[in-house]
Every structure is written in C-alpha cells, then in structure tokens.
Amino acid sequence: MNKEEFISKLKLAKSADDILALAKENGIEMTPEKAEELFEQLSGGELSDEQLENVAGGMSIWTYH
User: Which pairs count as long-range contacts for 44-51, CB under 8 Å and 24+ apart, including other chains?
Assistant: First the structure.
C-alpha cells in the first residue's frame, strides 16, 4: 500500500483499533495509546496532511518524556 492509500484509510478509521490494525498491517509500530491519540486528532480534524504523511512514513509524530 502506498502512502496516499494509507492516509486515505487512516482518515476512514472508525476507531483507535482500526488505526492500530492498519499500522500493524503496514509494519508501523504503534502503541494503543498513540493509536487512540491519533484517532482523537483525526476525529477532530486536528492533523495536517504533513503529520499524516509522517505516520504513513513510519515516523513518530509524538514525543513522550
């Protein structure tokens, strides 16, 4: 799956579990907590296309200390 397809599917996710499964299918490591945060941001329209591309590229868009 290419980045554009992945991002389209992310935008259609109906739950954090959908996002987690999609990430796993595409070899992207993601914790359930990150999937929940991503889902909340997607639901609220808070992520830019650039941030979504970072997820699609397997890069983390969050920093936890």
Answer: 49/7
